[in-house]
Write a structure and sequence with these properties.
It is built from 2 helices and 5 strands, in the order αβββαββ. By secondary structure, it is of the alpha+beta class. It is globular.
């Protein structure tokens, strides 16, 4: 499902003549994240807006690909580039909103 969101949706949008997606918005982390390994990760997370309309995101603690419940409950994917350093709570990170 993640790969479909990353690759299939932009392809279908292009085939339908829709404009490309805007760059991913930034959201403030509501929990810290460890450093990333050598590949880009898309971390399932909750997504919310505060009373002023700012986005915040909280990664789910377990990210195993077999955990469909966290995917179903996710509102966004936090984009973690390869070798990203640890990110403390409050850090702005790019997110890819999802709406499966």
């Amino acid at each position: 499902l993640i790969c479909a969101r990353l690759f299939l949706k932009p392809l279908l949008d292009a085939l339908l003549g829709l404009p490309p997606e805007a760059p991913p918005p930034l959201a403030r982390l509501a929990a810290s994240m460890p450093a990333n390994d050598g590949r880009q990760d898309y971390v399932r997370a909750e997504l919310a807006r505060d009373e002023e309309g700012r986005l915040s995101t909280r990664p789910f603690p377990r990210q195993d690909s077999s955990m469909l419940r966290t995917l179903a409950e996710a509102g966004a994917l936090i984009i973690r580039p390869p070798h990203a350093p640890a990110a403390p709570s409050g850090t702005l990170v790019p997110v890819l909103p999802i709406d499966f």
